[in-house]
Amino acid sequence: MNPIEEHELQRGLKARHLNMIAIGGAIGTGIFLALGATINQAGPGGALVAYISIGIMVYFLMTSLGEMATFMPVAGSFGTYASKFIDPALGFAMGWNYWYNWAITVACEMVAGALLMKYWFPDVPAIVWSVLFLAIIVSLNLMSAKAYGESEFWFASIKVVTVIVFLVVGVATIFGIIGGNAVGFSNYTIGEAPFVGGAKSIFMIFLIAGFSFQGTELVGIAAGETEDPEKNIPKAVNSIFWRILIFYVGTIIVVGALIPYTQAGVAVSPFTMVFEKAGIAAAASLMNAVILTSVLSAGNSGMYASTRMLYALAKEGKAPKALAKLNSRGVPVNSLIVTTLVASLCFLTGLYAETTVYVWLVAASGLAGFIAWLGIAACHYRFRKAYLAQGRDLKALKYVAKFFPTGPIIALALCIIVILGQGVSYITSASIDWNGLIAAYIGLPLFLSLWIGYKVKFKTKVVELENVDLDYRERENA
Predict the structure, then answer these.
(1) pLDDT (tens digit, 9 = 90+) per residue, 208-258?
(2) Structural contact between residues 23 and 297, judged by C-beta atoms closer than 8 angstroms
(3) Over the stretch 405-415, which tens digit does the pLDDT of each residue have?
(4) Torsion sign over Cα 424, 429, 434, 435
(5) Residues with Cβ < 8 Å from 220, sequence gap 6 or more?
(6) CATH no. for residue 120?
(7) N or C: which end of the chain has fewer CB within 10 A?
(8) Which SS3 state, helix, strand or coil, does residue 124 take?
(9) Exposed / middle / buried, residue 341 (Cβ in 10 Å: 0-12, 13-18, 19+)
């Protein structure tokens, strides 16, 4: 008999793990590579407006998730919340949507990791590195939640230290402390700067900024295995957002000052360009190593998140029951195996099969993150309404999200705008890029098929506020 009860994951994640899991999820290639492209497209001013706006939306989402995760810390997080607070069909769709989002992401990160290794070992076949990285990630996830948390802590720490060093070096270069030539902020006014391309460019950066911040919601997934969640989740939510926003805004300010928007792009990391300006030797090799760490971190988090979501689906009867089996370390091993197989299949599709299929998989994965965010906002709105409808006192909550209902409503509206705006760049006055347009929206019919299909088969209905199950956690822990 398994020494761990079927419904019990081990709470091995500590407060420092939780902080770094969310920071590590949001600081990745979005800041190390894509930031150059955003500044090139919208100018430093446009990039700042877009990232601050999306950052505020993420703040509302994080506080919403924090309130629910503190009250009900479960592995299924917003997938479970959607089932309990809105409609079991929505919970089914959100759970599977989030699972394939991260399963595909794991495959994408394995491809990216192999490409990065080409920098040092150009003659080694890419598949060798991909298999090696996948083996490392699976091994870390097989050990325990604590092993995952510890590895993610160190992966994320490398990224955080790199950003801090970059900001210090960048500010010193701007004011002439390094290099002897005070660059100042003259690059903010060259050409069309600070705002390049007007409102349309800023909107397009909204999409990139949203992708960059995805991963912060991992706090909700990790809540089910966090020690003292009522204390540690609020701490993580309150600190993570501000750290991430400062990192992104600070980086945009520094890059915008030191690199003219006309020279920024994705060919070379803006971090590499700034370090080279400061005279740091081997800057390109250093940043390649840091970006590789980001890729491994994203793959590690993706494997953890998808495995726990699949486990939660199985526990709720929305996936085969065998996927809820835990090993002696509290790891849902069957869910891990299935996720690894699917990620490997997606990877092989990208390596050997039709390119269009892989592009669609990646696009579906990207859109799935925004759908998850939309679901978080909707779940919080319903949770709070149900909590009050059942005569409960808000003072009894260990963490209360500010700005309700304005916060979740704004987040909901912005998520809808971003989701619907995915394909704008593929439509011009002259023509429509149908392949690009289909890829941009392929995630929507997948999600709607899951939702409607489950609803029709099981004839589910929206849960009345008075019947929302707010004692789920107490029964699970009984």
Answers:
(1) 888 888 888 998 999 888 888 899 899 888 887 788 888 899 999 999 999
(2) no
(3) 999 999 999 99
(4) negative
(5) 65, 68, 69, 77, 78, 376
(6) 1.20.1740.10
(7) N
(8) coil
(9) exposed
